[in-house]
Amino acid sequence: MKRIYLDHNSTTPIRPEVIKIAEPYIKSFFGNPSSVHSFGRETREAIENSRAQIASTINASDPNEIFFTSGGTESDNLAIRGVLNNQDIKSHIITTEIEHNAVLDTCNDLSKEKSVEVSYIKPDKNGLVSVKTIKNAVKDNTELISVMLGNNEIGTIQPISEISSFCKDNGILFHTDAIQAIGKIKINVQKDNIDLLSGSGHKINAPKGIGFLYARKKTPLNAILTGGGQEQNIRSGTENVAGIVALGEACRISDTEGNQLWDNVLKLRNRLEKEVCEKIPDVEIIGNKVQRLPGTSNIAFSNAEGETLLIRLDLEGIAVSTGSACSSGSTEPSHVLLSMDLPRNLIRGSLRFSLGWGSTDEDIDYLMDKLPNAVEKVREIAPKD
Q: What does pLDDT average to over the chain?
């Protein structure tokens, strides 16, 4: 049986070039980067080279604006909690209803544990957030606005440049969860006036367990993990050298190959959607049709159970998702789709197909050989509304 992977928004395969450059830092170069001897200096140099590469990828002005973390969730937590730590006055945060849970749960916790008020902005039916609505939600004590760049479930790209420019003009910090967008679209933190940006390795063909937070110079950021004082006293803990090296190489590859790769991925995604709409009745593409990440396609199959359809495809060797794979064990409907006020039968029957490095026309051939029959069979046993 063939095995087809169409769940790149969940995690990505590690590229051979990334494995090759990281492997020596598992086998041979094992020194603690905080050590002053040669074993430590060689790993410290590797870390700083990767820091410089990542800074270049997002056009940060200084490599020291990059802080390494264990992944996207920690980066989001550090961005939000780090700027609101030790506040004596009540603070106000604005975010959206369609953020990743790493942002939503952090904001929810802060609203309970600290003197923090949170406003959640609802998107339109295509998952796009209104800049005007965000502006209207601002209060005198608004300290942070957090809006993700590209949504992990529907791929919608938010107008962060307009939002961040407004933040700059009004003295409000701006954070974006760019975990799904890095490597897929060009990011320029200076041009877009971004104060804080979260990134993760395993979304761009690097290993799991490594991420970073960009924090613009002079952004007030406090540590949420204390200990040895690594990462300029912002993120204590001995650095994951192999992971950092791998992340730097993945960013280098995205800088050199990204345009061609994602042009090809976009063609594959468009082909997938065209053939699904032609061969399967009663389907709907969810999300903004234009402002969307190139590899993301969320398709709703009316009168079908998405979980059942996912299992049927898995039995054929095809990996897709019903939403975010980061919510461990969750069987609840997608909060992203619910916030868009979509009909329940569409939410219930939605699948996310996400393509990336390694996706081919042959993958789409195989999918379209199996998907129409799978949808038909699932619809036959689906409960009627």
A: 94
